[in-house]
Amino acid sequence: MGPVRTLDSGPVQTASVQELVLPPNPDGSCKLTHLSQVKLVVRNQHGHLLDRLSPWATYVTEPPVVGHAYEQRIWNPKPQDKHKWTSSKPKKPDNLKIYESHVGICTQEQKCASYEDFVRVVIPRIVKQGYNAVQLMAIMEHAYYASFGYQVTSFFAASSR
């Protein structure tokens, strides 16, 4: 592991910033592999250690135990595993008909729906009704799906569900 550098900004108790630098592997690749779990632990003003997610996390998953913090994962797939666009960009429509939807609640089953469910159940309905744009609500990770995404846990992480 690389050096840990601490920058103190004066007498404020909670104003220290720490940085961990991990040098790359000898071949230039990242030391943290795709889907590695990382954890951020902070000490609060009372001296307690708290698990936190980075506000810039790009992928987080539900914890195995309800009530625990979400788990941050490294999203860095190999180049051959990254998404490759196969369709061209659609032409701009003359008018805009927007269908607003939430992927997680697009099913009548007692479960959190997946993107596959959305494609199978909702997309045909959108096309049949003549909509030409889709607005997906709350695609970022959030702890409580019944809130329609108002309790966001990671603004930059699309839902792992």
Automatic annotation (TrEMBL):
A molecular function (GO) term: 1,4-alpha-glucan branching enzyme activity
Record-linked SUPFAM superfamilies: (Trans)glycosidases
Cellular component annotations (GO), alphabetically ordered: cytoplasm
Gene3D superfamilies according to UniProt: Glycosidases (3.20.20.80), Immunoglobulins (2.60.40.10)
GO biological-process terms attached to the record: glycogen biosynthetic process
InterPro entries reported in the protein's UniProt record: GH, Ig-like_fold
Protein name, as recorded: 1,4-alpha-glucan-branching enzyme-like
Gene for this chain: LOC103518803
